[in-house]
Amino acid sequence: MSSAFPAELQPQSKPRARAAWDVYAVVAVGGTLGSLLRYGASLAWPGPWSTFLVNVIGCVAIGVLMHVITELVVAHRLVRPFLGVGVLGGFTTFSTYVADAVHLVFEDQPALALAYLAGTVLCCLLAVLVGVLAARSVARLFGRGDR
What we know:
Helix content is 73%, strand content 0%. It is mainly α. The protein has one domain. It is a multi-pass membrane protein. Na(+) binds at residues 89, 92. This is Fluoride-specific ion channel FluC.
């Protein structure tokens, strides 16, 4: 079968990279730990505001982590997959955030659902910025500038 596209525009097959099983393992372990932490938070404070709080705290932590491992230290190659993708990815939960909003709609609170949806995204974006700025400030306080 011939293609309508010239050869230089056709996708080139690349050799597949070997699976990094150690990365998969640390993501799985980290995700388990983060999910257990989130579950504990939902037991301590059930409802959509628990999800909101977990997501905001997780986003602050992501901001701190990313600044530290990209600007301050040379981290082991498994730190980001374990902490960033695994623990904090398992801890934060945007699927539950959507489910919480749906429940608010079914409870005849559509305005609150919209405010919750928009407010969570806005607060989480600001939380990442706060985390980065806080980590940067603490680093400067202790005499550790950006690399």
